[in-house]
Write a structure and sequence with these properties.
The chain is α/β, with parallel strands linked by helices and 315 residues long. It has twelve helices and nine strands. The protein has two domains: 137 residues, Rossmann fold (3-Layer(aba) Sandwich), CATH 3.40.50; 159 residues, Aspartate/ornithine carbamoyltransferase (Rossmann fold). One of its GO terms (molecular function) is ornithine carbamoyltransferase activity.
Length: 315
Amino acid sequence: MAVNLKGRHFLTLLDFTPEEIEYLIDLSASLKLKKRAGIRGNALEGKSVALLFEKPSTRTRCAFTVACIDEGGHPEYLGKNDIQLGHKESVKDTARVLGRMFDGIQFRGFKQETVEELARYAGVPVWNGLTDMYHPTQILADFLTIKENFGYLKGIKLVFVGDGRNNMANSMMIGSAKLGLHFAIASPEGLRPSDELVKKCEEFNKVSGGTIEFFEDPKEAVKGAHAIYTDVWASMGEESKLAERIALLKPYQVNKELMAASGRNDTIFLHCLPAVKGNEVTEDVFESPQSKVFDEAENRLHTIKAVMVATIGNV
């Protein structure tokens, strides 16, 4: 089946079929080879993209900027103090203005409703660079990294340890269910995805052959894990809860003992970064040969490039 994503938004992996997600991962791999070979592209020649940031960023901002330039496009960074988004000007009106000037719009911020409203009114593809609910571009980078290490995705056991109701856990669960991974969350019972989202993912699992499991005991969760994933214990905007989260999540720290509990000698460690070493992960795991976090960070570039090329590219 031919895959055509031209003109599509990229707001959540819920909107994409397994074939479309696999297409983006494969396209990312080919664009990575091209980049490594020093080949500049022209898939975005003549295109301009707006990069809207309510939240600060290292990897997302740099990846969108470099990816756009690599393929001949022009990126324009618009921080929260640069435009009137949601303050003097409504999201709806901002979308209609930017949509007439740019070929695509990236949004990184708080509310999923904001990126959805941008998409509703912009008239051009809108890409979710992160919201409080979803982080779909990160999942593409994570899955590309896993595929590079194991050669496949379907049947992989991927375990998320820590705050299991954040945007990473949500998006990872969706991606795993779509592509047939065995996904587990190790967390306190109160920090898990919504029942509604779990039910949706269970329906995807009926087609893909994937599974979802929840554990309070992290050592039980990671048995047989190909990849162990964690994230910061307090997301952006939740810093006031950090002391409470440290007390609650200390048993979920990814350390050498937890990595060994997988029972595999090829288990890899993943983290979307930035990491708070000493909280969710120890320094020795972060710096170990099992850690693939910087491959993962680089893969943000190639997967984000694939999303832009597939949706607005000259192909």
